[in-house]
Amino acid sequence: MVLLFLAGLCLGPVDIPVSGVIGAVLGQGSGNVSWDYIVLESRLPSTLTALLAGAALSASGLMLQTAFRNPLAGPDILGINGGAGLGVALVMLLLGGNIGIGGTSLGTSVSIILGALAGALAVTGLILALSARIKNPVMLLIAGVMVSYLTSALISLLNFFSSAEGVHSYTMWGMGNFGGVSLSRLPLMAALVVAGLIVAFLLVKPLNAMLLGDLYARNLGIDVKRTRMLLLLATGLLVAITTAFCGPVSFIGLAVPHIARLILGNGNHRALMPVTVLTGAVVAMLCNLLSSLPGSRGLIPLNAITPAFGAPVILYVLLKQQRHS
Does the pLDDT at position 97 exceed 70? Predict the structure, then answer.
């Protein structure tokens, strides 16, 4: 993490000497106004955003996989990412990119963040409502998949009836980007992500019990229904915040928990949760670094890089399970 953090500050399309980077970060100045701006307004926020987003998505994926006892459970599957995408689609394709309150426009970036938050939290609320009626975790997972399909259908309709410019803007947002968070908005994202991660760490003991099934967890005195609701709330918050600020980032939440299990060799959440969070931060920071490699040709879309890490891991897990069965 430390090496990738330093690399994220020092490497990029513009060559900046290490001394200049250190001077800019320490507030002493690099001797070049452009370098100061690049380090403090671009590289530092994007690196910290990647760290937070990777940790949040990975913790969400681990909680969902444990709760539903399904290695393919993740934020994408439950439709939370789709809900955020629908919220952004409504803002960008239906409202022209701006939300007005009392005659005052909030601006495009704030409107997109609010739209993504509203959409993700709305889907989380729907999944919570369904969880009160559907007791079987597999059936609840299928319900989440249906919600995801529904949001995709609505987004397709909005794309069909919108302008070419709106479709292009929405497509660019959908590619994912850790560089869209300014230094002034980073504390808000960090506070919300840390709050979600605290809830995730508090659920470590119930998650360990749920590994052996709901009946075993109830025999240990754990309220499974309440635990699942807290888990969905924490997951919804983490995914909503990450998607609102960074766009829909694929595969990190799905693949990183499996990488952490391979590292540890066991499923004890007392060790698995922190290792998953740290591994997610590392993978996200590495993807963020790789996205800037072309230099003058621009940034590679984030969702063109994350599947290169995630897809082989998922294939390996599926093949391993097939051998064991």
Answer: no
CA dist., res. 58 & res. 52, Å (int): 10
Residue 215: the pLDDT is 80
Residue 225's contacts (CB-CB under 8 Å, 6 or more residues apart) are: 131, 132
DSSP 102: T
267-300: string of b/e by CB count within 10 Å (b at 16+)?
Answer: bebeebbbbbbbbbbbbbbbbbbbbbeeeeeebe
- In angstroms, rounded to a whole number, what is the distance separating the alpha carbons of residues 295 and 8? 13
Taking a C-beta distance cutoff of 8 angstroms, is the pair 119, 83 a contact? yes
The pLDDT value recorded for residue 324 is 63
Q: How far is Cα 264 from Cα 104, in angstroms, rounded to an integer?
A: 52
311's tokens: 């897809």
Distances (CA, A) of 168 to 162, 171, 245: 10, 5, 18
Q: Which long-range contacts (CB under 8 A, 24 or more apart) does 89-92 make?
A: 89/154, 89/155, 89/158, 89/159, 89/170, 90/115, 90/119, 90/158, 91/115, 92/166, 92/169, 92/170, 92/173
Instruction: Name residue, tokens 């490699």.
Output: 293
33-80 per-position pLDDT tens digit: 888 888 888 899 999 999 999 999 999 999 988 887 778 777 777 788
Strands (E), 75-211: 100-101, 104-105
Q: How far is Cα of residue 32 from the mean position of the Cα atoms in its chain? A: 34
- Phi-psi category of residue 251: left, alpha or beta, with phi > 0 → left and psi -120 to 50 → alpha: left
pLDDT digits (tens, 9 = 90+) for 145-177: 888 889 889 999 988 888 888 788 888 888 888
